[in-house]
Amino acid sequence: MTDADVRAHLDALAKPRGSLGRLEDIAVRLARTQDRLDPRTRPRRIVLFAGDHGCVADGVSAWPSAVTGMMVATILTGRATSNALAAAHECPLRLVDVGVAGPRIEHAPAFFRDARVADGTASLARGAAMTAAQFEAAWQVGAEEADAAIDDGAALLIAGEMGIGNTTPAAALTVLLTGLPAAPAVGRGAGADAAIVANKTRIVADAVARVAPGLAGDTLGTIAAVVGYEIAAMAGFFARGGARGATLLLDGYVATAAALVAERLAPGSVRAMIAGHRSAEPGHAAALAQLGLEPLLDWGMRLGEGSGALVALPLLDAAAAVLCDVARLDAIGAERAD
Ligand SMILES: Cc1cc2ncn([C@H]3O[C@H](COP(=O)(O)O)[C@@H](O)[C@H]3O)c2cc1C
Ligand SMILES: O=C(O)c1cccnc1
């Protein structure tokens, strides 16, 4: 199926040609991700992956690592932004601890999974963030989550993340995998001031300079040196979900860094991806451009947790509804005048 096939289908519906404007472009993209003229956005699922980052001790975030655990606890009570938006848009949510550093959750609800690979990464400022084996373990957790969602019928998948410090590995991966210099790849994350941004920029530049020579020879090991557990899990989630024919709706800068990893290690994953929005993080545009993706929204959002993808989700519902539920012009007895 080609773009032209989807356009021909849209043009045969009971409406003037092109009258739904950009919604028709979104419909084409959605249909192509599932290779069908009647793509589905339901059932769907958002999986939030949580992890901590050793580099927070090196001063890359405005927030301490303990906030990751606090937000995990908040998500478990159903009162985080991600819970609110997921509920608003009827998207079942799961939460997976793949590398949080704090105490383990006890007596968790069924939507939580403890799949902790380690108690946070080592600092990418001082050496490898994780080993190749740890990367593969986290990737596998994400792949299992995609399998479980698709086995339950999900046609559309969103990955979200919670991990104080994770815009630093996201920037390092963007620099490593797009060639963007460190300065335009590094932003304020969850509210870093100018001094933190300067320190973060130096740490990202140094880490990438240290590991980049290994990229061609040991791609997985090089990525592992600057990744985070939640990012590795999101990459495995995307690679498996895309391979099994689900639509992948991307969130912001951190999720897109995972998408870059997925595409590098499982080429072709990008065919399943739709970019929900462009984050306020300055490197996001370059990361999306590397993947050839146009964001649906550009609203200055910079939260993560899958929030931008969840806000964009109704646009895909609208595109699917048009493709699936609108009558053909010939079926109502009319002829084209346009
Ligand atoms: C209360 C709170 C809730 C969040 N939800 C997502 N993030 C987002 O901000 C963090 C990344 O920014 P940085 O790299 O600057 O630390 C991640 O946890 C990300 O999910 C949050 C951050 C905070 C503080
Ligand atoms: O765009 C993102 O993914 C993002 C931006 C700021 C903080 N956390 C995540």
Automatic annotation (TrEMBL):
InterPro entries in the cross-refs: Nict_dMeBzImd_PRibTrfase, Nict_dMeBzImd_PRibTrfase_bact, Nict_dMeBzImd_PRibTrfase_N, Nict_dMeBzImd_PRibTrfase_sf
The pathway is: Nucleoside biosynthesis; alpha-ribazole biosynthesis; alpha-ribazole from 5,6-dimethylbenzimidazole: step 1/2
Glycosyltransferase is among the record's keywords: yes
Q: Provide the GO biological process annotations.
A: cobalamin biosynthetic process
Sample GO molecular function, one term: nicotinate-nucleotide-dimethylbenzimidazole phosphoribosyltransferase activity
Which reactions fall under this protein's catalytic activity?
A: 5,6-dimethylbenzimidazole + nicotinate beta-D-ribonucleotide = alpha-ribazole 5'-phosphate + nicotinate + H(+)
Instruction: Tell me the keywords, alphabetical order.
Output: Cobalamin biosynthesis, Glycosyltransferase, Transferase
Query: What EC number is given for this enzyme?
Result: 2.4.2.21
Q: Which family does it belong to?
A: Belongs to the CobT family.
> What's the protein name?
Nicotinate-nucleotide--dimethylbenzimidazole phosphoribosyltransferase
Instruction: State the organism named in the record.
Output: Sphingomonas taxi
